[in-house]
Amino acid sequence: MKPLIKLVSHAVPLVRENIDTDAIIPSREMRSVSKSGLAEGLFAGWRYLEQDTRIPNPEFELNQKQYSSAKFLISGNNFGCGSSREHAVWALVEYGFRAVIAPSFAPIFRANCIQNGIAPVVLNQETIDELAIQAKAGKDFLLDMRSMRLSVDEQEYEFSLECSAQTMLLEALDLIELTRKNMPEIEAFRREHRRNRPWLYL
């Protein structure tokens, strides 16, 4: 996982409501518990006309040349709903996405994004529709994780994340590593707690 400080790239507009984790990566594509080897199965049900031969569907956005190598994905309400499979996020990461922009996310999927280095950017539907137009026009998107701003074609959009989520993305930390950053405070609390309640440590 790499730190996410600033990100500049074009975007893929896939503005559909309730895209669930089975659409993001069908269960048949999850052949191991590894984080690698999943990119080919990303959106496999929509991306290929034939699953066995992997014939690309030219109508699907990820197969269109103008969206090749995009690091932003724009989508609709309730992105990542359904089962809690973390493979869905792993597939997005391996494909190259570092930010997903949507009006809302399924809570578990959102948490998995943060733990795997993808910024879940929440913006209102009107803004999403505007950004989809900009994406289709091939505009570059700039994400600044420190200021939590998204810029496109001289327009700025603010978004919010919890301080812990922002730190995890900026410093490429998982939850365990984030906890370790707070070890001095944890140890200080433990010493104080032991001093005030020594009977608990007998």
Automatic annotation (TrEMBL):
Catalytic activity field: (2R,3S)-3-isopropylmalate = (2S)-2-isopropylmalate
Entry's EC annotation: 4.2.1.33
- Keyword set for this entry? Amino-acid biosynthesis, Branched-chain amino acid biosynthesis, Leucine biosynthesis, Lyase
Q: Record's superkingdom?
A: Bacteria
Q: Give GO terms for biological process.
A: L-leucine biosynthetic process
InterPro entries listed in its UniProt record: 3-IsopropMal_deHydase_ssu, Aconitase/3IPM_dehydase_swvl, AconitaseA/IPMdHydase_ssu_swvl, IPMI_Swivel, LeuD
Function, in words: Catalyzes the isomerization between 2-isopropylmalate and 3-isopropylmalate, via the formation of 2-isopropylmaleate.
Q: What is stated as this protein's family in its record? A: Belongs to the LeuD family. LeuD type 1 subfamily.
What is this protein identified as? 3-isopropylmalate dehydratase small subunit
Q: Which organism is it from?
A: Hirschia baltica (strain ATCC 49814 / DSM 5838 / IFAM 1418)
